[in-house]
Amino acid sequence: MQKEVTRLCTAIQALTSNIVPIIKVLDYFPEDVDAMQKELEMWHSEMQLNAVTLETEERSNNLICLIFIHPFLSLKTVFHCFSLHICMCTVYLS
Hints:
Layout: H1 2-93
């Protein structure tokens, strides 16, 4: 009976010595999770802000591109009509 009690005490001491580090880690776990959650929220809000900024810049750039491209589109139309006219004259003269 004494051997069993001694063995049981040894097993309990071994279990306790192994559990203490785990308990210490678990004590810090909620704080780490809270810090990670706050960081995630910060990155998420920064992502949303950057997405809005990017969309605004894209609209502005598209407008600027249209301002510069519009005259060339008109020229392209003129050249296209002129080339069709030349083709029609060539066909007519043939």
